[in-house]
Amino acid sequence: MSELSVNHLLGIKHLNAEDIQLILDTATQFKEVINRPIKKVPTLRDITIANLFFENSTRTRLSFELAEKRLSADVINFSAASSSVKKGETLIDTVNNILAMKVDMVVMRHPNPGAGEFLAQHVDASIVNAGDGAHEHPTQALLDAFSIREALGTLEGIKVAIIGDIVHSRVALSNVLLLKKMGAEVMVCGPTTLVPKHMHTLGVRVEHNLQTAIEWCDVANMLRVQHERQDINHFPSIAEYRAQYGLTMDHLDALDKPIVIMHPGPINRGVEITSEVADSEHSVILDQVQNGVAVRMAVLYLLAEKRKLKNSK
């Protein structure tokens, strides 16, 4: 398979296993490119990409921007905080104005679930979902999968525990969907108040004890508590959360095997993970950052190729 089955990257739910494999394999080639002395390739020289961020996200925005520039695309950065959206302009008006500038692709982060799908139905551009509410964050799941495959050689049969604030996390849902499609086993772990009641219907194990989870898994993906998405307190205090779900070197030293530690960032050091663990040899957190650029390059390249084929017919 040399092309994606989709015209947009709206969520992992729309991808099949072949799509995921193609993106990961393409990202492997781009990772070689970004480690060369000359890191730029002319692949998207005639493509204009607009980054629309209706929510703040420094890391994801910079990662996409770097990926776009490495591919030689023309880049427009748009921040809703300083835009006409504050004056009441609708999403569709904003995007149509940007498309009037002949934009080929839109990378969008939006607080409302399904915003990317709405956009894809109304505008003639390839849409990449960079996170929609607490729904999906497909490129984060892809870079996490890439990082697991790089560390362990495969995704098939790997046991992955996703630990922390599951209910508010778009990363968790995208990871569960992707890992299940690629043959991994998945467990979610956290306080009962932070694990959705429907999780078992996705074919994952549910656990509320941190030590049990890390004894079971090959990979622990630690999520931060998303206070900004919470309208009520889901646990008594940060100190109590840390005591029950904060990963320390003592936890890792008690295991009879090494496990891979991941985190989508930003890290609340000393809450869900100690600095000692985050900076240890078990951690691939900095690899995830570098892999994010390669994976996003792969996604942009493959969608641009798909668009080219579609427009040539």
Protein architecture, described:
Helix 2 (58-70) crosses helix 11, helix 5 (138-152) packs across helix 6 (170-181) and helix 5 (138-152) packs across helix 11. The chain has eleven helices and nine strands. The strands form two sheets. A five-stranded parallel sheet has the order 7-6-5-8-9, sandwiched between helices. A four-stranded parallel sheet has the order 2-1-3-4, sandwiched between helices. It has 313 residues and is an alpha/beta fold.
Brief sketch in words of this structure:
The chain has helices spanning 17-34, 58-70, 91-99, 115-122, 138-152, 170-181, 210-216, 238-245, 249-253, 275-278, 285-312, and strands spanning 48-53, 74-79, 105-110, 126-132, 159-163, 185-189, 205-207, 219-222, 260-262. It is α/β, with parallel strands linked by helices. It has a five-stranded parallel beta sheet with strand order 7-6-5-8-9, sandwiched between helices. Strands 2-1-3-4 form a four-stranded parallel beta sheet, with helices on both faces.
Number of strands: 9
The SS-based structural class is alpha/beta
The low-pLDDT segments are: 227-232
Strand sequence of the main sheet, in spatial order? 7-6-5-8-9
Helical stretch tally: 11
Cα end-to-end separation: 19 Å
Strand residues, percent: 5-15%
Quick one: overall form?
Answer: globular
Largest sheet: 5 strands, parallel
User: Roughly how much helix do the residues carry, as a percent range?
Assistant: 40-55%
Radius of gyration, in angstroms, nearest whole number: 19 Å
